[in-house]
Amino acid sequence: MKPPLVFVSYSHDSREHAEWVREVFVNGLRSRAVDARMDVYELSYGDKIDAFMETFIEKCDHIAVVCTSDYAARAAHDLGGVGCEKQLIRRFMTAADPGQKIVPILRSGGDAAIPAFLGTRLYVDVQTDAHTDELLDQLATVLYGGQVYRAPPVAELPPWLAEKLAGGAPE
After folding, report:
1. Which of helix, strand or coil describes residue 11?
2. Torsion, CA 40, CA 45, CA 50, CA 54, rounded to 10
3. Do residues 105 and 20 lie in contact, with contact meaning Cβ atoms separated by under 8 Å?
4. Higher local confidence (pLDDT), 131 or 119
5. Cα–Cα dist 22/24, whole Å
6. Which residues on neighbouring strands pair with residue 104, listed in sequence order?
7. C-alpha to C-alpha distance for 16 and 85, rounded to whole angstroms
8. Torsion angle in degrees (nearest 10) through CA of 105, 114, 48, 80
9. Of 33, 66, 73, 167, whose CB count within 10 A is highest?
C-alpha cells in the first residue's frame, strides 16, 4: 500500500512552533508510514517557494493545516505564504475527490484559530501535548482511509419488542 502524501500548511509563528510542526507533527506522521511533507524538508535557499506549494498541493492526497491565531490572521488577510496556500487549498477543495481530506490541526488559539476558509471541518486538537501520540495514530488511520471509531452492529430485535410490535398482550 502506497503511503498517503500529505502537504502540511503552517505559519512560521516562532522557532518553537516550527520545531513542533517538524519534529512532533511531520516526523510523527512519517514514523506512522504517512508521507508528510513540509517546506523545510523540500526547499533549499534560492528555491521558489510558490512553485513548491503549488506542485505539492496539486499532487498530494490530503492537506493538514496547522492552525494558530497567527495562521488564521494571515489567512484572513491573504498574507505571505499562508495567503498563497489558502488560495491553493481552496482550489484543492473544489477539485478534491471524496476521499481526499483537508484536516485542521488546532495547535493553539482555540476555535478562533480555525480559519474561516476551512469551514466547519472536524479538527484534531493538539493544543496540549498530553494525547499527541494517540491523536497522530488516529490521524494516520484517517489518512489511510480508515475510520477511528466503528459503531457496533445493531442488535437483533429483542423478543419482548417483537411481541409488542406484533400486537401481543401488554405486560
Report:
1. coil
2. -50
3. no
4. 131
5. 6
6. 65
7. 22
8. -150
9. 66
Give pLDDT tens digits for 49-103. 888 888 888 889 999 999 999 999 999 998 888 988 888 888 888 887 877 889 9
For the sheet containing 35-37, what is the strand order? 35-37, 5-9, 62-67, 102-106, 124-125
Please give the model's pTM, rounded to 2 decimal places: 0.87
Phi-psi region of 48 (alpha: psi -120 to 50; beta: other; left: phi over 0): beta
- Tell me the C-alpha distance between 29 and 33, whole Å: 7
120, 39 Cβ separation under 8 angstroms: no
Q: Quote the cell numbers at residue 144.
A: 489511510
Residue 99 in grid coordinates: 476521499
Q: How far apart are CA 18 and CA 134, in angstroms?
A: 21
Residue 1: pLDDT band (50, 70, 90) is: confident
152 pLDDT more than 90: yes
Q: Under a CB-based contact definition with an 8 Å cutoff, are residues 11 and 74 in contact?
A: yes
All 3 cell numbers of residue 148?
477511528
The 8 Å CB, 24+ separation contacts for 90-94 are 90/117, 91/57, 92/57, 92/58, 92/60, 92/63
